[in-house]
Amino acid sequence: MKTLALAAAAAALAFPAAAQDATLSVHHFLPAEAAPHALLMAPWADRVEKESGGRLRFEIFPSMRLGGTPMTLADQLRDGEIDAALLLPGAGGGRYPKTEVYELPFLEAGALASTLALQDYYDRHLREEYREFQVILLWAQEGAVIHLNRPAARLEDFKGLKIRGANRAAGTFLRGVGAIAVGAPLSALPGMLARGVLDGCLLPYELAATYRVHEDLRHHVALGGGQVRIGTSVLAFVMNRDAYAALDPQLRAVLDAHSGRHLAWYAGKSWSEAERAGLEAAKRQGNRFSSIEGPELERIRAAVRPEIERFLDELSRQGGFDAAALYADAKAMIDRHSR
After folding, report:
1. What mean pLDDT do residues 246-272 have?
2. Which CATH superfamily is domain 22-143+232-274 in?
3. Rounded CA gap, 51 and 151, in Å?
4. Is the separation of the CB atoms in 100 and 90 below 8 Å?
C-alpha cells in the first residue's frame, strides 16, 4: 500500500486532518472487459473513492499485468506484493476445500441467488478458511453451460470428449458423464480451441463471449428440470490484512460499507445482466442451443452423483469436516434465496 501526501482540502472533508490518504493496488487474472472487472470492481472502486472524499484510491491491474499466474495471486497478496486481489479459490489446489463444496454440480441457481446464499455460507462455514485475508466479497458467477464443437443430447454423447472445467468440482460432472476433464487457465482457452485440443468447455455465457468461445464452439447444452446450469465458480475479492489494518479507521469504515452483504446484491445482479449479453452474442453467431430434459437428465444426474459423493468423501478426509453436510446446507441456503 502506498501512503500519499495529505490533500490540501483535507480540512473540508469529514475525515480528521491527521488522516492519511491511501492508494491500493488490485491485481486479477481477467481481462478488463470481463464482467467482474467492468461491472463490479471498477465501478466499486469509483464509488469507494468518491465516498471517501478521494482519500482512498485504487489502481486495478487486470490480466495479471503485475506478473505471476492466477495460482500465485494468493501468495502475492499474502506476501504484501499487492494490496488486494481477485482469487479463484476452486483452482487453488485444495487450499479452500469448504469453498469447493459450494462449486459442486446441482447447487447453482443463478448468480444473484447463489451470491446472496454465499454470504450465509461464508458466515457459517468459511470465515476460518479466509482468516488470512480481509474479505471484500465472495460471489458466485452465473453457472456453467456446456459449450461443444458438436451436438450432445444423451449421456453417451459426452464419452471421451476433452472438456475444460474451471475447478475440481467441475471435474466431478465431467468424469461422471464420461468426458475427459482438462484443466487450463482461461487465458489459454482460445489457443487450445484454435488448435483443436479441446472438444468443449464449461463456462457461463458471459465468459464464453469475453474469450470468444462462441466462435469456435457452436453448440451450447444446458440442463432442464429447473437445473439449467452445471455448477458455479466462487470468486474471492480479498485484501491483505496488514494493508487493511494500516488504513485510517474512517477509511476502513468506508471500505466495510461497500463489502460483504452490502455488495452482494449488486454483484449477483450485475453478473446476471452480463450473462444475458453473452447469450445474445452466441445467438447472433447463429449457434445452436439445446437442453437435456426428463429421463435423460435423470440418467446424467445418476451418473454424476457417485463422483460428487467421492469428492465429498475426499474433502472430508483431507479437511477434517463433514463435506456432505456442508453440501446439504449450501443447497438449503441457495433454495431459500431462490424463492
Report:
1. 95
2. Bacterial extracellular solute-binding protein, family 7 (3.40.190.170)
3. 50
4. yes
